[in-house]
Amino acid sequence: MNSILTACKKLGVASVAVGFTRSRDEMVRFSNNSVTVVNSWQNEVPSIYLASEGKRAACRIEDENVNFEVIARELADSMKVMPRGDVDFDLPAGPFAYQEIEGIYDKRLTEIDSGLVDAAETAINSAIKAGAERVSGVVISGSWEHFVLTSAGAEGSSKGTGIEITVRGFAASDATGQGISIATNLSRFHPAEAGSMAGTIARKARGATNGTSGKFNVVFGPAIFADLVDRAADSASAYSVDLGLSFLHDSIGKRVASEKFTLYDNGRLPNGPGSIGLDDEGYPTGETHLITRGTLENYLHTSYTAAKHNSRLTGSAQFEGGAAGMVPTPRNLIVEPGEQQFEDLLDRAQSGLYITNNWYTRFQNYQTGDFSTICRDGVFEIRNGKLGNPVKGLRVSDNMIRILQSIEMLSKERHWIRWWEVPTPTLTPYVLVRDVGITTANK
Amino acid sequence: MEDKTRLAVEQALKHGADYAEARAQRDFGHTLTLNNGIPEPVTVTRRLGIGIRVIVDGSMGFASTNSLESSQIRTAAETAVKIARAATRLISKPSELAPEKSCEDKWEVRMKVDIGEVSIEEKLDVLFSIEKALSLDQVNVSLPSRILLLDDELTEKFYLNSEGSKIRGIVPRISLFFILTAEETGKGTIQRMRHEAQSRGWEAVKEWDPPALATGEARMLGRMLREGKQPPTGEIDLVLGSEVTGIICHESCGHPQEADRILGREGAQAGESYVTREMLGKRIGSEHVTIIDDPTLPNSYGFYMYDDEGVRAKPRTLIKDGVIFDFLHNRETAAEFGVSSNAAARSIAYDREPIIRMGNTFMKPEDYTLDELVEDVERGVYMKSFMEWNIDDRRYNQRYVGLEAYAIENGKIAMPVRNPILEVTTPGLYGSVDAVGKEMEFAGATCGKGDPQQGAPVWTGGPPIRIRKIRLGG
Questions:
Q1: Which chain B residue has its CA at the smallest distance from A55's CA?
Q2: pLDDT digits (tens, 9 = 90+) for A51-88
Q3: Which end of chain B, C or N, has fewer beta carbons within 10 A?
Q4: Helix/strand/coil (H, E, C) string of A102-155?
Q5: Residue B61 or A3, more confident
Q6: Pair B141, B104 in one domain
Q7: Which of B227, B243, B259 marks a domain boundary?
Q8: What would you report as the CA-atom Rg of chain A, rounded to the nearest whole angstrom?
Q9: What CATH number should be reported for the domain holding residue B122?
Q10: What is the pLDDT of residue A8?
Q11: Contacts across the A-B interface (CB distance below 8 Å)
């Protein structure tokens, strides 16, 4: 890493952040109660981020034949032909002290071997016992070490492990349920519970009839609410704001949600699946309050966006491949719980829907927050404050700000969610929202 | 690359694999972005690695490494076999591959202008030319947000398997993507995404005429904002533009007819399918509906000559005259169905297993002009493009919200209408098609599937089509 840093500095670049990630991951995918494929990855990947006069360039180097000096020169030369950026900024000036984060490294997960197949089997059996006939899913475990060295004097590393399972139970082709367990150490990993949840929801979803469109009081389960929260956090990234793709633009200090709703990001949460000691600009991660009792307090920042918004750093800089370079990214999203039980939410709703999961969220307008998303897995009527019959064929068609502002009640019970559709680990309760727009197919 | 893939396959067989294949892949490219006229970081892609897939006692394993050192390849090959073997006790149905004749071949999409030889400056100039063209006086609408992105990538793959197949392929891809937000006082905002993409050299960019593309879209946004009215209610007829036809074919034909989805392999991720294997030969739409997926369309974004199992690519007719005719197969699903693979196995990177993907999915044109489709509509909407869309994970219940859209009154295109919503089932939609146009257009797209996700370059396309007696959603 030092040689890359030296090569870049020789080229006259003002700011350099070099990253290096060593990772090992294994994944078991299963469907119809049987393993379909096992995947294994072992990677060592350096990355380079350069900045000078507000201009920036970046490369993730997944080619060991690459000469770092050549890449550095190519990036520096590309910056020479760019116009001056809109804001001068510096990488955070180190050195920094990085505290160890409790519970995010479990040596047992570096040697799990056939343990993943065991976890898949446990989940399958548990889902079948709870009522599923067929079970699909994926279990993945991994270990990583991440190093950062910058021209601003920051140098540090962090390491972690993780294991997670997504289980989907099928009691019929249109009666399904999902369960998830994610953890950084084996003691907190519960594949049986995930399987049981998937099978139970699938069993209860049998015999679903087509639902109707209209406005409903909706109790959102953790899986679907985590997706909505992830979208809100994405909108709270200063990068999204600057791209014109945020429904939280120009909203710092404004009421964007119900006063019952508080959301924060914590990159150093003990046992947090997304926790890491430092961001990719070498700044220590920390806790950032995004929405506090309904008011938008902060955006997530990199050093570039912080300079642009005249704001403080949040330890959120993450190197992304593709178009973006360094992007402010949440690590662990935490929704503050309420005081109520799940049954209290149903009772308060009196009539409406309980939606356990969703899929394929898309926006008509990212700035206004108009969107729709498909209800997936078990959806149940709420009648007289209790769960009723299963229904299907529904879509949430609404507006993100309206939904956040119409939150009426949150449960005390929370679940960690991360899966194919929700990339950021999110801890969220069940949530009651009033008058949610629900639509169905017209033909 | 050949000696590395050969080493990988040999090692896998040595450790006990019944079948082995290795694919070395190099990706090399650049992405440039302007955000409201300010460059985002120039990012450079440099990827090279090897992926090894094996079958051991009916269990499939995949391992990869981004090191081509012999010791690392040996380790990856051994790992692939070891993890596959460890899973055999949880296999209820052993993986088998449909037979294929081995072959050796090389293919390459040749560029007239090598994207690797085009300077960063020249690429930035294209983006700045678009930015300049989007000024208020030129497009007559305020554009508070303009994201312009130019992406190029050259991919080289070397594939080798234990049956003797050996394929080398080289394909360049170039892509222009933009998101514009238009605003009008008192009318709010409206957003448009547009993606032009081909497997081609830099010569594609000049043909696209990016400033003209972008200014055309911007002026349209202004018109929709200023003049757009509520869409008609009640039962109407719809004419869908090529862009909407294309996304419909992709979402509600291509995806549900992926055989791995039908077999449940994606059940926990992208979902399964309302289509079952018994539905081959079943009518799903009118006789006007024929939908094809063809990876061999020259310079298409989803182009390939051989898939990532070494099978020669060809067009696949998925729905023929309204009847479900074929599925997209790889060698594993082909074995299950008792057919031959039709070359649908694709992987986007060295570290991803090949899975069933589309190439370029489109509705076959018939013989109506757009005017002819419209003139037989008394009361309806012409939905030319869309912004919001989604479909359920069985590919049955879909929604498209119009962006550029117009009322049709007495056989003529009339005033703009705002956000008409088509929310319909797959048989409801295909069963209502009563006429298909003749002018074909394609749009670039990045299709998501697999775990971990693989964003595959594809085209979606077709002619305009007409559907009868639909109630718009709300």
A1: B41
A2: 998 899 999 988 888 888 888 899 999 999 999 889 99
A3: C
A4: CCCCCHHHHHCCCHHHHHHHHHHHHHHHCCCCEEEEEEEEEEEEEEEEECCCCE
A5: B61
A6: yes
A7: B227
A8: 23
A9: 3.30.2290.10
A10: 85
A11: 286
**Total structural domains in chain A?**
2
> From CA B177, how far away is CA B361, in angstroms rounded?
20
- CA–CA dist A254, A291 (Å, integer): 10
Same-domain check for residues B261 and B383? yes
Angle, alpha carbons A53-B177-A78 (nearest 5°)? 30
Residues of A in contact with B56 (CB under 8 A): none
Residue with more model confidence, A42 or B192: B192
Token look-up 């409903």 returns A216
Contact at 8 Å (CB) between A184 and A107? no
Residue B33 C-alpha, separation from nearest chain A C-alpha, in angstroms: 7
Task: Supply the ipTM of this predicted assembly.
Answer: 0.95
Tell me how far apart the alpha carbons of residues A205 and A376 are, in angstroms, rounded to a whole number.
Answer: 11
Dump pLDDT digits (tens) for B7-42.
999 999 999 999 999 999 999 999 999 999 999 999
pLDDT at position A321 is 67
User: For B245-274, what is the mean pLDDT?
Assistant: 96
> Chain A partners of B26 at a C-beta cutoff of 8 Å?
63
Is B390 in contact with A373 (Cβ distance < 8 A)?
yes
CA distances from B250 to A78, B198, B267, B443 (A): 37, 17, 19, 11
pLDDT at A2 over 90: no
Span A205-237, pLDDT tens digits: 999 999 999 999 999 999 999 999 999 999 999
Are B42 and B112 found together in one domain? yes
| Closest partner CB to B121 (pick from A45, A81, A441) | A81
The nearest alpha carbon in chain B to A441 belongs to: B424
Whichever domain contains A10, its CATH number is 3.30.2290.10
Give the pLDDT confidence of B145-189 residue by residue, as tens digits: 999 999 999 999 999 999 999 999 999 999 999 999 999 999 999
Number of H helices, E strands in chain A: 9, 20
How far is residue B331's CA from residue B99's CA, in Å, rounded to a whole number? Answer: 8
